[in-house]
């Protein structure tokens, strides 16, 4: 294998999967370098979970070349599994056990497992370590799922909609956790419906629509955001005024001159990730 390929944690070419007459994944290509945080975006039913489950070895593709940490997940060994961490959309099989019992139990599956108590702390469940899993709130259950995904110190972590049900503070804490894992070199593939989450965490985002990758870029570059028309707004004598422009600096300079200094209520905005994403998805769905 050449050096470039060895540098890829995930490499997929021509991935295809149909359920009966429903084509869930339709010729998808994807390359994720080691150490990257990659977010898969796309509307409900776009094929994200199917793709991720194929990469995890839980589903069989109909066609395509797939390499995950250099191995075809169809031929996965226990050694390969121990290098991959998985957080599914929902678990909840260990209702009777306490948080500490579940995490300690999972740690025994891995030769090089992390310290269970440290992991419980990192996901913010120390206060709940003796609570039974069934008594946890939705967001706390997700944190437990994340703990089980990272207990084996994976090289590659799959997170399927990891913060669904989290309150805003828990999401911020979770983002810090993910940033810490990424800084330590873990490759992360996550799916999310939260555009701010993709923007906060991902080096690159891929947008899937109807089983195909329709856009791939750094969050700041998606849909040419950097060069998109800007809107300059300010408070005029009769209320809010605004101007759409490709040269916002010139508009702001002219305003500063007109107001003789500070421009009241000045904002300069470009389309958000959500704006460009929704426009992109709208076009794909109309096609
Ligand atoms: N087990 C299954 N049997 C039949 N059809 C399925 C199955 N799993 C998924 N599908 C179909 O495949 C398509 C892709 O589904 P998938 O769950 O991969 O989408 P998704 O992008 O993850 O959606 P969401 O954002 O809602 O989680 C959908 O049309 C779905 O109905």
TrEMBL record:
Localization, UniProt: Cell membrane
InterPro entries cross-referenced by the UniProt entry: AAA+_ATPase, ABC_transporter-like_ATP-bd, ABC_transporter-like_CS, ABC_transporter_ATP-binding, P-loop_NTPase
GO molecular function, one term: ATP hydrolysis activity
Alphabetically ordered keywords of this record: Antibiotic resistance, ATP-binding, Cell membrane, Membrane, Nucleotide-binding, Translocase, Transport
One example of a Gene Ontology biological process annotation: response to antibiotic
UniProt domain ABC transporter: residue ranges: 10-235
Membrane-protein topology: Peripheral membrane protein
Keyword Membrane tagged: yes
Keyword Translocase: yes
Name of the protein in its database record: ABC transporter
